[in-house]
């Protein structure tokens, strides 16, 4: 059973922790800032740059942020306290996901302003933003739960974030690579941001990605709880 008071307490703690962590806050603005610079410098490629950096923002950023948050909890030994106090894996995930996804979507809304002409489908954009951020948060929490130290967490989170967010960009230039990357949720997120509507294939691929990563997170959380 999900208890709202548990989720509220974790959410309030996350807000306080992140406000004090400038490095994490910077991650939420780095890709919108780079995209703004690129779109102003090379106006003719505006659609391409917005699609690329928006995908990175909704895939790479949540992975690294969520992993960093979990690593910090483990370093302070508060994660063990939360587990032993009866916080379920679902409560912990939902609290972290709500915080990261909301902040990611708020800062990511700047991509809509950069486009300016209203050509981006707002519904598709935010559905991609939310779905991509949720799956990415799960990946980040898996990394943070699995890793033994903050340095190990960063060493694993950054490469994974790059794989899921950079492959869609590279596939733009290499169609052979696209035949592989399309099975990753990051590629589907870029399709949606680019205006491609939800298809049966997109729903199936994103759902399978979500189910696999969710199962892995639950397994790692329970193992960490018993290992202490």
UniProtKB/TrEMBL annotation:
Keywords: Membrane, Transmembrane, Transmembrane helix
Gene Ontology molecular function, alphabetical: ABC-type transporter activity
Keyword check for Nucleotide-binding: no
GO cellular component: a single term: membrane
Domain of life assignment: Bacteria
Residue spans crossing the bilayer: 21-42, 48-71, 92-112, 124-144, 156-173, 202-221
Protein name: ABC-2 type transporter
Native organism: Ruminiclostridium cellobioparum subsp. termitidis CT1112
């Amino acid at each position: 059973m999900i208890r709202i008071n548990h989720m509220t307490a974790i959410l309030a703690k996350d807000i306080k922790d992140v406000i004090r962590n400038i490095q994490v806050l910077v991650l939420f603005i780095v890709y919108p800032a780079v995209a703004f610079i690129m779109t102003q410098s090379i106006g003719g490629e505006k659609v391409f740059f917005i699609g690329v950096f928006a995908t990175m923002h909704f895939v790479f950023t949540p992975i690294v942020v969520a992993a960093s948050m979990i690593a910090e909890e483990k370093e302070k030994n508060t994660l063990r306290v939360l587990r032993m106090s009866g916080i379920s894996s679902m409560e912990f995930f939902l609290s972290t996901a709500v915080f990261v996804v909301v902040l990611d979507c708020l800062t990511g809304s700047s991509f809509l302003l950069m486009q300016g002409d209203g050509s981006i489908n707002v519904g598709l954009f935010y559905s991609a933003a939310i779905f991509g951020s949720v799956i990415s948060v799960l990946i980040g929490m898996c990394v943070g739960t699995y890793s033994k130290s903050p340095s190990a967490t960063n060493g694993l989170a950054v490469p994974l974030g790059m794989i899921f967010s950079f492959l869609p960009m590279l596939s733009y230039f290499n169609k052979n690579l696209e035949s592989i990357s399309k099975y990753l949720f990051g590629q589907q997120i870029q399709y949606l941001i680019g205006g491609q509507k939800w298809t049966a294939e997109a729903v199936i691929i994103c759902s399978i990605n979500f189910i696999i990563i969710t199962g892995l997170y639950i397994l790692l959380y329970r193992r960490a709880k018993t290992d202490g």
